[in-house]
Amino acid sequence: MTTQTQTQIHIPTPPRPNREVIKCVMDIIKGYMDLDDNHCYIYNQKWLMPEDKDLYVVLGYRNSEVVGNTLKYRRTADELIGVNAVMVAESYFLEMYSYSDASRVRQLELMAAFDSDLAVRTQEKYHFQFGYVPLHFTDVSRVEASKLLNRYNADIRVLYGRTFERSSPYWNQLGGLKTIINN
After folding, report:
1. pLDDT, tens digit, 9 for 90 and up, residues 51-98
2. d(CA 161, CA 84)
3. Contact yes or no for 68/86 (Cβ under 8 A)
4. What's the whole-model pTM score?
5. Containing H/E element for 112?
6. Rounded to 10 degrees, what is the CA torsion of 62, 26, 156, 88?
7. DSSP letter at 183?
8. Residues 6 or more apart from 87 whose CB is under 8 A from it?
C-alpha cells in the first residue's frame, strides 16, 4: 500500500501597491473624463487658476478617521510578528470649474466615473472602496463674484485599510515592569 502525504502550499499574499488613495481617485477622474494633467489638480499644489474656457477638476483632502484597528500576531521560526491592521475613512472635496458651461454640462459624466469599469478595477488594484460618492453638486460660483466662473463642489468618501508588521518580543522576554518615580 502506498500512502499519500498531504503538503500544504503556501501562497504568499501579493504586496499592496503603495499609492495614495487621493491620487487613485484623481486617476479615475482623468481617465474616464479624458482630461490631462494640466486640467486636474490635487489641492494645495502650487498652481494659478487659468483664464481659458476649459474644464478643470480639483480634488482636495478634507479629513480622515480611523474606523477600525486590530492587532494580531503571526509566528515565524525565529520571531513573533505583530500585524496591526488599520481601517480608515477619508473625505475629499471635489471642485469642477470653467469659464464656459463645461463644468455644469459634464457633472453627470463625473458622477458616472465613480461607477465605471475603470473605477472598479482601480479600487481592486489599490485596495480601497468608495464609501460615498457625490449625488449632487453645490453651486459655489458666488465666491468668484463678477469673474463669471462656473464652479461646483461635491464631497467624496473612501474606505481603505493598511497593515503594518513589526517584530514583537514574546511576553516572557519583556522583562519585569519598572516603576520610575520622579521627585
Report:
1. 788 899 999 999 999 999 999 988 888 888 899 999 999 999 999 988
2. 10
3. yes
4. 0.76
5. helix 107-113
6. -70
7. -
8. 66, 67, 68, 69, 159, 160, 161
